[in-house]
Write a structure and sequence with these properties.
Blueprint (H helix, E strand, L loop, with lengths): L8 H12 L1 H14 L7 H13 L3 E4 L8 E7 L3 E6 L30 H22 L3 E7 L8 H7 L8 E8 L3 E6 L3 E10 L15 H15 L8 E8 L10 E10 L2 H21 L3 E10 L3 E2 L1 H14 L6 H13 L15 E3 L10 H6 L2 E7 L19 H23 L1 H15 L20 H12 L12
Parallel strand pairs: 3-4, 3-5, 5-13, 6-12
Antiparallel strand pairs: 1-2, 2-4, 6-11, 6-13, 7-9, 7-10, 8-9
Helix pairs in contact: 1-4, 1-11, 2-3, 2-4, 2-11, 4-11, 6-7, 8-11, 8-12, 11-12
The protein binds zinc ion.
Zinc ion (ZN) binds next to loops.
Length: 487
């Protein structure tokens, strides 16, 4: 950690607040870790987060855009309007005991955090409460909006928020995400994505006695798969099409009346993802024609690629540097190395230096549903060091330190830099004006319009069955102690 000699009064105030509340931040992340809730089912998580924000003086609107576990919490009034947002969902089949370097389930087969969205939620709330305290203490004018975005792993909520006008009055926005490094980046970071289900409809029959009387919906799914596999020859390297069959029928002696497949289509820009989806629709129609079935198509989400504004990335970097990396203990380094070894990743322990600011012009093939926000208003995303470097997310090893001192220390560092950057938007409105100016240049004439269909409703049933199956066993591991922030 750097010395405190050169800190501004706002930074000193915020860093003291966050250090004083380090235990609450750790407990919040750990509580969410043990909730382990999948997208659209983050009921305990959202309840805990919104309760803390309300207690700290935020006005909380729950259920925004029809998302039962989404929220917008507001503090202050007038300009500038600064929005901060993140996600807090888990992944299926990744239940992992904290602090051990080998795969060990808390509840076998259950969902679990294996990326760190639990810590994202803790950093968001800590940042919000710290920034709000500073606004009051220093008399800064403006509005802080805190958005909770459900189901990031299914890329669902934030395009709905943007489509429904929740960002119409926002001046600048920030997104916090866990990583193995402490960094800010500007430019094009992630791909566009369309998520859609294709449901084929046929007619049942006895598969042994009179199969010729049936129309097999699963044939439609399989033929679409064949068509997509052939089409891959014509896809550019940055394009992706991948799927899971969510309904393949019930038993072999009944020809399935319905069958369904869930596809993700990715490309570097919204236009490319849309073209790929249009091609997939043709292939689905062909599959229906061949199998004497009908197909219905439902878009779950459609997101623009994520891009970050240079001015806001520089602002974050300015506040990341004085915070510096956490001082890791030798035990923490040993655990990180053991995890890297067991995950067959490059073994180099935890990072000791913050990363320099970088620019990027080619998006990665990952996506994040915050993409739409980043074309609507200037936005920046930063990574704070609460996970182990070099380990791929969605693997048990990426879940092993998420309720552990590594995550706790990274969250404190992340919240300090984040809160200081947010507060500078209120203390120095010129930075907001500059971000809006550079944003206009960066858009280079691209007109944002949502890819999400106008009348599309959120998929509120998503993951409900899995969560209902595992929640009783998972609930036995919920923590007894709840976080409390003290001003
Ligand atoms: Zn994530």
């Amino acid at each position: 950690m750097s010395t405190r000699g050169n800190l501004s009064p706002e930074q000193s105030f915020l860093f003291d607040f966050i250090d004083r509340n380090a235990r609450a931040i750790a407990l919040l992340g750990d509580n969410i870790f043990y909730f382990g809730e999948l997208g659209m089912q983050e009921f305990e998580t959202a309840k805990l987060m919104t309760g803390l924000l309300e207690k700290a003086g935020f006005k909380v609107e729950r259920g925004i855009s029809g998302f039962p576990t989404g929220f917008c919490a507001t503090y202050g009034a007038g300009d500038p309007v600064v929005a901060i947002h993140t996600e807090y969902d888990s992944c299926p089949d990744n239940s992992q005991v904290a602090g051990v370097p080998e795969q060990r389930f808390i509840v076998e087969g259950a969902p679990g955090h294996c990326e760190g969205h639990n810590v994202n939620g803790a950093v968001l709330v800590a940042t919000a409460i710290a920034a709000r305290q500073a606004m009051e203490r220093f008399g800064f004018k403006g509005t802080l909006k805190v958005f909770g975005g459900p189901a990031e792993e299914q890329l669902v909520s934030r395009p709905y928020f943007v489509r429904d006008g929740w960002f119409d009055d926002v001046d600048v926005a920030f997104h916090n995400h866990i990583g193995g490094e402490f960094s800010a980046t500007h430019g094009l970071l992630q791909s566009a994505l369309i998520s859609a289900t294709f449901t084929f409809h046929g007619e049942t029959a006895h598969s042994g006695v009179a199969p010729w009387k049936g129309r097999d919906a699963l044939d439609g799914v399989v033929l679409m798969d064949v068509g997509m596999a052939q089409y891959r020859e014509h896809m550019r390297p940055e394009m992706r099409a991948h799927r899971v069959i969510t309904n393949g029928g019930d038993q072999p002696n009944v020809i399935p009346r319905t069958a369904a497949v869930w596809w993700f289509f990715r490309d570097g820009n919204a236009e490319g993802a849309t073209k790929l989806f249009e091609q997939a629709k043709k292939i689905a129609q062909g599959a229906a024609l061949m199998s004497n079935t009908e197909v219905s198509i439902d878009v779950l989400s459609a997101v623009w690629p994520l891009r970050c504004n240079r001015t806001l990335a520089e602002l974050l970097q300015r506040h990341i540097e004085p915070v510096g990396m956490p001082a890791w203990t030798s035990d923490e380094q040993a655990l990180a190395r053991a995890l890297q070894e067991n995950a067959k990743a490059k073994v180099e322990g935890l990072k000791r230096e913050v990363s320099p600011l970088t620019g990027q012009s080619v998006p990665r093939t990952s996506a994040n549903d915050a993409g739409d926000i980043s074309w609507k208003v200037p936005m920046a995303k930063f990574y704070y060091p609460s996970n182990v470097p070099n380990i791929n997310f969605h693997h048990w090893a990426a879940g092993a330190v998420l309720a552990h001192s590594i995550a706790h220390k990274g969250a404190v560092a992340g919240a300090k830099a984040f809160a200081a950057a947010v507060v500078e938007c209120f203390s120095n409105p010129a930075v907001v004006a500059e971000a809006r100016r550079t944003f206009k240049d960066e858009l280079a004439g691209v007109q944002y319009k949502p890819m999400l269909p106008a009348g599309q409703k959120p998929p509120v049933e998503l993951n409900r069955a899995i969560m209902e199956k595992f929640r009783p066993a998972m609930a036995k591991h919920y923590l007894k102690e709840l976080p409390e922030f003290t001003p």
